[in-house]
Amino acid sequence: MLDAFRQWFSRRAGLPGERALADWAHAQGHHFKRSRDADGFIVEAQGGAWRLEWGPSQRRYITGQELRLRAPLNGGAGLQLLVLTRSLLDLLEKQVFEQYTQGLQTRIDLATPDEMRWLVLHPKLPAAELSALRGHFGAVGHPLEALSSWIGGPLGAALVELATARSAGLAPLMLIVQRERLTLRTALEHAEPALITELLQLFEVARREAQRVAAQWQLAGPPDPAASLWPHSVDGPDSQLR
């Protein structure tokens, strides 16, 4: 009964800054709504170009609130590309090492998300190819040439600009290309129109560059055979970011 009352009260009270967020979304021609549990919100772009979700984190490595963005890609079914903040890469590598080398034996964990599996399955982009991103971001993926092409132009410049603007340090952030879609995940404790606009600008650059790479790499058949060792990870029930 108490949980039901708290949920009812939260729905009535509204989210912090909800009016400003809704006004921002509607001014851009997007659709705004609260999430199913009233602990976050969803913005769907006009024409379905992308979907944004903000709410409790769906990943153990991101604490607090999380912003998620997803957009479909046309082609590139075999691409598995990941770029993420350096501190997050170090954290995930530590977790993967602990998870898969207990007792010096490899252990398969069905709950392990794709981005952590890839640290085992796929090679890192060499530091020399990261260029100005080195020290701020890391990248892994298959094929490595596609990963290098993805972050080698406008996306790399946008990521460097973001790192430069965050003088106090980058929040955990990753961009993932898989199964013909692009996903962004980042820690975002307080959702504000200005912060969301900044992340959307980065996302749009990543989407354009991912689409360019997808058009170049029309890989036939399934991704890297090693990826079939694990099934796909699953997000929370309210999310479509699967």
Can you describe this structure?
The chain is α+β, with helices and mostly antiparallel strands and 242 residues long. It has one domain. The chain is built from 8 helices and 8 strands, in the order H-H-E-E-E-E-E-H-H-H-E-H-H-E-E-H. Helix 6 packs across helix 8 and helix 7 runs antiparallel to helix 8. The longest helix is centred in the last third of the chain and has 24 residues. The chain starts with a helix and ends in a 26-residue tail after the last helix. The N terminus is likely disordered.
Describe, in short, the structure shown.
Helices cover 38% and strands 19% of the residues. The protein is an alpha+beta fold and 242 residues long.
Write the SSE topology.
Elements: H1 2-13, H2 18-27, E1 31-34, E2 41-44, E3 51-56, E4 65-72, E5 80-85, H3 86-100, H4 114-121, H5 127-130, E6 137-142, H6 144-151, H7 154-165, E7 173-178, E8 181-187, H8 193-216
Antiparallel strand pairs: 1-2, 2-3, 3-4, 4-8, 5-6, 5-7, 7-8
Helix pairs in contact: 6-8, 7-8
